[in-house]
Specification:
single chain, alpha/beta, Rossmann fold, six-stranded parallel beta sheet, four-stranded parallel beta sheet, about 15% strand, elongated
Length: about 350
């Protein structure tokens, strides 16, 4: 989603953008010129075919290209390094995940004019594996967020929720490393006499195993599945608390979403989280355990003042236009105009 928004934003600022990816009808031909190529994550027969098609695509537009910008995974980075070297183009690499596989793509990282880390933790990982700090820029992966209802009342009305409910939201992939099992276990131990509505949004391999988990009668769980992207603001605006039980994060998009929509955050104190939030300033950080999540939820349930204090003013939030400006400067042009 972020890359699609970045492409649209660059095109809207007058840049010619050539996107090498699988065909994505959501991008829209009038907005960007899409070069059809197949995207795979790891080398192999599929990657060889993708590389050949990518080479041919760049060959046809080489005179109009000044920069090649690759977003991890590693196969994309290695291919972009080769294309930039062969065609004599400047290279930018964006590292989205911790644990940079530098050995696999070292020649591309060594050649890159700029390396973008989406968090300070990832920037530190890049330095640790040998990338020069003066080539690293930290730019958070902030997309253009869809609009949301203006009030909690209107958001809850849209979702059929009572304004008096204590609503807990999880929104993201339901993978084991996301810690969704910790949240469900905490809900199963919720103490009596405290009504709670849990909205669990997303799909993934952990969902089928957890969906039938028993919870106390005070807890109502809604497994919402996948929702349209344009509806996420309604869910965040309706919630009293957004919970991120993840075991590790590189650039936690859901945290950025919650900050944007003004939803109090309860997060496990996992690697990468503190790049974006500060404990008891704009989030409540708890140990990565069932007890930690349960205790954090209880504290937020019983202390509305704490929930209010965790919502920071909109002026303190990083928005997409700022991120777009940083990318334009990265490519050597101003926000208003400059090199392609």
């Amino acid at each position: 989603m972020f890359v699609a928004d970045l492409v649209r934003g660059l095109a809207a600022r007058g840049r010619d953008v050539f996107l090498l990816t699988e065909r994505d009808p959501g991008l829209g031909a009038p907005t960007v010129r899409t070069l059809e190529a197949r995207t795979v994550e790891l080398p192999g027969i599929g990657f060889v075919l993708f590389a050949i098609r990518a080479f041919r695509a760049v060959l046809t537009v080489r005179d109009g290209v000044g920069w090649i910008h690759a977003h991890s995974p590693r196969a994309n980075v290695s291919l972009a390094g080769f294309l930039a070297s062969f065609f004599g183009k400047r290279l930018v690499i964006t590292a989205h995940c911790r644990g940079v596989d530098y050995a696999f793509s070292s020649s591309a990282y060594d050649r890159a004019a700029r390396v973008v880390a989406v968090s300070a933790s990832i920037a530190a990982d890049l330095v640790d594996v040998g990338v020069s700090p003066d080539r690293i820029e930290v730019i958070p992966c902030v997309p253009r967020f869809p609009p949301a209802p203006e009030t909690k009342e209107s958001a809850r009305q849209a979702l059929g929720l009572s304004i008096t409910d204590f609503v807990v939201l999880y929104l993201g992939r339901m993978d084991p490393h996301k810690g969704i099992h910790l949240l469900v276990a905490a809900l199963s131990r919720w103490p009596p006499g405290r009504p709670l509505q849990a909205l669990l949004v997303g799909e993934g391999p952990a969902k089928a195993r957890l969906e039938g988990s028993a919870v106390p009668r005070e807890v109502e769980v809604t497994w919402a599945g996948r929702i349209p992207h344009e509806d996420i603001g309604t869910y965040y605006r309706a919630a009293d608390v957004f919970v991120l039980p993840s075991l590790a994060e590189g650039s936690p998009l859901s945290v950025l979403e919650a900050l944007h929509y003004g939803t109090p955050i309860l997060s496990c104190d996992a690697p990468g989280i503190r790049d974006f939030v500060e404990d008891r300033v704009n989030a409540l950080l708890v140990p990565r355990s069932i007890e930690g999540i349960q205790n954090g939820l209880l504290e937020l349930y019983e202390d509305p003042g704490l929930r209010t204090s965790l919502v920071r003013p909109a002026t303190e939030r990083v928005d997409f236009d700022r991120v777009l400006d940083l990318h334009l400067r990265l490519y050597g042009g101003s926000a208003a105009g400059g090199p392609q």
